[in-house]
Specification:
This is UPF0033 domain-containing protein. The protein has 75 residues and is an alpha+beta fold. Helices cover 29% and strands 35% of the residues. It is built from two helices and four strands; from the N terminus they run E-H-E-H-E-E. Strands 1-2-4-3 form a four-stranded mixed β-sheet, covered by helices on one side. The chain is globular, with a radius of gyration of 11 Å. It starts with a strand and ends with a strand.
Length: 75
């Protein structure tokens, strides 16, 4: 999936992946995709809830070699 920006949040513990995601997505335009890479297992639920509450959409997520990857479309 094509993304406008890739955020490396690997090695960061909660709440830092959310904090960095919020900052990164603020620089995008509505409809653009932010790709987030994280290793914190809690990021799956956290990012899903954060995206929904912020009016964004978690378009896709997958796990690859213990790295969680998320594609969030800015609302």
């Amino acid at each position: 999936m094509k993304s406008e920006l890739v955020l490396d949040a690997k090695g960061l513990a909660c709440p830092m992946p959310i904090v960095k995601t919020k900052k990164a997505i603020s620089g995008l335009e509505s409809g653009q995709i932010l790709e987030v890479h994280a290793t914190d297992k809690g990021a799956k639920n956290d990012l899903q809830a954060w995206a929904k509450s912020g009016g964004h959409e978690l378009v896709k997520h997958e796990e690859e070699a213990s790295v969680l990857k998320f594609w969030i479309q800015k609302g």
